[in-house]
Amino acid sequence: MFSWLGTDDRRRKDPEVFQTVSDGLKKLYKTKLLPLEEHYKFHEFHSPALEDADFDNKPMVLLVGQYSTGKTTFIRYLLEQDFPGMRIGPEPTTDSFIAVMQGDVEGIVPGNALVVDPKKPFRKLNAFGNAFLNRFVCAQLPNPVLESISVIDTPGILSGEKQRISRGYDFAAVLEWFAERVDRIILLFDAHKLDISDEFSEVIKALKNHEDKMRVVLNKADQIETQQLMRVYGALMWSLGKIVNTPEVIRVYIGSFWSHPLLIPDNRKLFEAEEQDLFRDIQSLPRNAALRKLNDLIKRARLAKVHAYIISSLKKEMPSVFGKDNKKKELVNNLGDIYARIEREHQISPGDFPNLKKMQDQLQAQDFSKFQPLKSKLLETVEDMLANDIAQLMVLVRQEESQRPTQMVKGGAFEGTLHGPFGHGYGEGAGEGIDDAEWVVARDKPMYDEIFYTLSPVDGKITGANAKKEMVRSKLPNTVLGKIWKLADIDKDGMLDDEEFALANHLIKVKLEGHELPNELPSHLLPPSKRKITE
């Protein structure tokens, strides 16, 4: 009797079974989240419905910046080749959105053809109309970098009201659409013109809620002296702090991202280190793509839940016959109070609510009588998805990551410094002397030997206690000295001979000069007499 109660309860407790993360995301969205979105007109207020291509596409990188900050040049630098439709110049040259993607042959696909291709994640862009689609193209070309990621080049952002009006489409809304779907947003600034125009400020605000994807590049930094660069960097951080409302500081990469000689080479090492950090960040995107899509689905589900509560509350307050228009105006004006009530009743974080002003503007054009009342079953399904199914997908994400070989972006500029003497830090720090015929430590060994023989060696070796007395003079922490000891004590006998002691001092010098210690001793640092031991 009442067996149906138990069946329903069991169904809610047992999470769905998925074969892959991508299939799981598609199924969860279509069966559990999409019904809630459609019931409460989520797509008219926020974001269009997701399609299979949104879950299957490669990681995308969105470049945003004012004109002549080097966005197109940055893409060319990564790919190490020109792409169809590319135009570079000091004036505003790129007047279109260009999706640079992998293709068997070089060519350009116009916007109107792109939005009817089910294999591309751009179908929902047709909502922005012909004014936008005429300025949207896909540049396809065979390139190893594009086998792992796609890059979206955007028109240079201009200052002044006139240019914004003449675009013919909502530029900030298009960028917001892309921001929801890309894996990384790179804001480019020119070290010579840091002013953030009204339109750029509006764009950055439109990217709110996507701060976790945002990175900043201070480009063309080789054109100014070190002292000026410090001032420019400080001014940039101050300007961003006024627009981007996050407690954390956005990561800023400083460099010159093109293949020309550095004009002022004083900060070459800094630029190399910053470039490697940025490249590592971009290279990690394929590995983290599934996790990013899962995270975006969770964010979307939370917003859809709040939206359902807002719409159903408005429906509940509406009169059935008379005074509908006056009541609608009253509800729109008092939307802030409705937000506060929903927040209290359902224990929802204020950060989950949509922008109040934008929501009020959108509600003006809506017919409240067509809104739906609260349907608990739809909300319970989404709650169940967040509580159970998402947890299972998280496990599947980790399994897929461990089963696949390390996924990284390869080719182009990413491999330019991977091998050979131009790799970052090659021949520096612990890598010093890597190509020398002689043992690099031998240069300073006479000086280290003088200290060694003052430490009472017995049978050509000093004890750990005696070595410690000398090593702690470096003032390095014990954790670092412990690592140096492990690297230097090659025969693992708990003592150091003269070569091992010299090696320990060499590693101390490397650390004091600001370089990192290796996890394993490189072969060129092995003392000549110990090379047979390790073979």
UniProtKB/TrEMBL annotation:
Keyword Zinc part of the UniProt annotation: no
Residue ranges of domain EF-hand in the record: 476-511
GO molecular function: ATP binding; calcium ion binding; GTP binding
Localization per record: Cell membrane; Endosome membrane
Key words of the record: ATP-binding, Calcium, Cell membrane, Endosome, Membrane, Metal-binding, Nucleotide-binding, Phosphoprotein
Membrane topology annotation: Peripheral membrane protein
Stretches assigned to the Dynamin-type G domain: 55-286
GO cellular component: plasma membrane; recycling endosome membrane
Main location group: membrane
Biological process (GO), any one: endocytosis
Domain EH stretches: 444-532
PANTHER family: EH DOMAIN, EH DOMAIN-CONTAINING PROTEIN 3
Protein name: EHD3 protein
Source organism (scientific name): Grallaria varia
Phylogenetic lineage: Eukaryota, Metazoa, Chordata, Craniata, Vertebrata
Gene name tied to this protein: Ehd3
